[in-house]
């Protein structure tokens, strides 16, 4: 048996140990991406994957490092500006009909996209009656997101994305900065509830009008994608909206027929059964 197949067996045993010990289930994540991350975890410890198993079983303090490595905390302000412009122009006007609006950003990573959304809601006069829930499996990323602090060297790119996404003011109106970092203003941060949530094992926690889960499903296999899409379907109000990442496939959406395209080129859908 070659080394690659032995590694696959070790990775399977490691993931089983993680699940049985802590109820974190990564076993249905996309195999190639997950293998790279587990091997990276082993390399960081200068251990084989097999030697990671007793480590994760017996050292509870090691769990945070495992989750941080296996999850994918990647984000950007107004990532894919045309998507945010489409949300602004075609989804938010429909949400205005609700007296109270709930939005769920699933897999919020370090918070760039959820703050982009909060700014957009404020500019459209909706933030005051909106509650945003931002969730992730990675507690380290969640803490960074809740702080709302980002490196100042990212500002130029963020400002460009903001304008291309249809921003109506100046991006500088939404943060305070020093030489190294900028922080999103409190009036925006206080409209967001950050919470740990595992899309693999946790259920519905509220009813929402809009869910954003962008470039998360690409790390799941088909079985897990279908399970998560059912969770989103059950979380949305009648006719509610789902926004996925532009890198994701339509296959699972089309197979389940739980959602219909609202603006397919931007991966925006509405809960099936209602024509919007």
Question: How would you characterize this protein structure?
Answer:
With 276 residues, the protein is an alpha/beta fold. It has helices at 3-22, 31-45, 49-58, 63-70, 81-95, 112-123, 139-147, 155-164, 186-189, 222-235, 251-256, and strands at 101-106, 130-136, 149-151, 175-177, 181-184, 192-196, 208-213, 236-244, 259-263, 268-271. It has a seven-stranded mixed beta sheet. Helix 1 (3-22) runs parallel beside helix 3 (49-58). 40% of the residues are buried.
Keywords:
276 residues, 19% strand, three-stranded antiparallel β-sheet, single chain, seven-stranded mixed β-sheet, Rossmann fold
The share of residues in helices is: 40-55%
Number of strands: 10
Distance between the termini: 56 Å
Shape type: globular
- Secondary-structure element series: HHHHHEHEHEHEEHEEHEHEE
* Model regions low in confidence, pLDDT < 50 over at least 5 residues: none
Largest sheet: 7 strands, mixed
Could you provide a short overview of the structure?
This protein folds into two domains: 68 residues, no CATH class; 191 residues, Rossmann fold, CATH 3.40.50.150. Helices cover 45% and strands 19% of the residues.
Outline the fold blueprint.
Blueprint: H1 3-22, H2 31-45, H3 49-58, H4 63-70, H5 81-95, E1 101-106, H6 112-123, E2 130-136, H7 139-147, E3 149-151, H8 155-164, E4 175-177, E5 181-184, H9 186-189, E6 192-196, E7 208-213, H10 222-235, E8 236-244, H11 251-256, E9 259-263, E10 268-271
Parallel strand pairs: 1-2, 1-7, 2-6, 7-8
Antiparallel strand pairs: 3-5, 4-5, 8-10, 9-10
Helix pairs in contact: 1-3
